[in-house]
Amino acid sequence: MKLISKILIIALLTIVVGCSEKESKGRFNFPMIKSKIALTKEQTTKFDKIATAYTAQAKQAWIDAKGDRDAALAAQKIIFAEQDAKIKEILDEKQYVTYFKEVNIERSGREKHNMALIKNELDLDSLQSVKYDLANETFFTVLRENHDNYHGKLDVYVQYHKEIDVSRRVAFKKMMTEEQFDTYLKLIDKYKVGKIEE
Predict the structure, then answer these.
(1) CA torsion, ordered 31, 34, 39, 40, to nearest 10 deg
(2) Mean pLDDT of all residues in 160-185
(3) Of 8, 33, 170, 185, which has the highest C-beta tally within 10 A?
(4) CB-based contact 54:82 (threshold 8 Å)
(5) DSSP assignment of 149-169, as one string?
(6) Which band of pLDDT confidence, cut at 50, 70 and 90, is reported for residue 197?
(7) What is the rounded distance in angstroms from the CA atom of residue 53 to the CA atom of residue 41?
(8) Can you tell which superkingdom this protein's organism belongs to (predicted)?
(9) How far is CA 130 from CA 103, 120, 144, 175, in A?
C-alpha cells in the first residue's frame, strides 16, 4: 500500500510540475526576447519578475472578461503599457528599443509578422499578393475563432495549426509557381511557422 501511495504521489508531482512548466511558457516568447537584448544577470532577474507578474495579470484579464474579447484586449492594453514602463526602468535605451519592437511583434502575433516577411521574400505579383493575404487572413480568422479550444494547451494549438494549415498550403500551391512554393516551404522552416519555440 505504501508503494502505491508513493507511486501516486510521484505521478501527481510529475503532472503538476509538467503542467507548471507548460503554463509558464505563456503566449510570449520572453526567452527569445531576452536573448536579443543581452541582459545582465541582475536585469534578467528583474525582467523575469516583471514578466511573470504582468503575464499573470494579462491571463486574469481574459478570465475576468468572461469571453468578451474586446474587454479583455482593453484591459490587457493597460497591463502591457504598465509592464513596458516597468521594463523600461531596468533597461538602457538600446535594449528597450529592441525589447519594445520584439514584444509588440509577439503581441500582434509573431507568426503573422513572419508570414509578412515570407511574402516579401517570395517576389509575388500583385494578384498573387492579394491571394496570399486572403489565404492568410482566412487562416488566422479560423485559428482565432478556435482560440477557446486550444487556449493554454500548446499541443492542441499545434494540432489545430497543422489541420488548418493544410487548406492554406493548398491555396498557396495553386497560386504560386512551383519555384515560389518550394521557396515558401523552405521559408516556413526558416521562420519556424507553426512551431512553438521552447
Answers:
(1) -10
(2) 95
(3) 33
(4) yes
(5) HHTT-HHHHHHHHHHHHHHHH
(6) low
(7) 19
(8) Bacteria
(9) 28, 13, 21, 10
pLDDT score, position 160: 84
pLDDT in tens, 103-122: 999 999 999 999 999 999 99
Q: If you ran DSSP here, which 8-state letter would residue 19 be given?
A: H
- What pLDDT band is residue 85 in, cutting at 50, 70 and 90? very high
DSSP state of 92: -
* DSSP 8-state secondary structure symbol assigned to residue 8: H
The structural domain count of the chain equals: 2
Q: Tell me, yes or no, whether 83 and 139 share the same domain.
A: no
Identify the CA nearest to 109 among candidates 61, 161, 62, 171. 161
The answer to the question of residue 78 being in a domain is yes
Confidence of residue 131 (pLDDT cuts 50, 70, 90): very high
Location of C-alpha cell 475563432: 145
Residues 114 and 56 in one domain: no
Per-residue cell: 43: 536585469
Please check whether residue 5 lies inside any domain of the structure.
Answer: no
Whole-angstrom distance, CA of residue 85 vs CA of residue 157: 31
pLDDT given for residue 150 in this prediction: 76
Q: Are both 39 and 100 inside the same structural domain?
A: yes
pTM: 0.72
Other C-beta atoms within 10 Å of 119: how many? 17
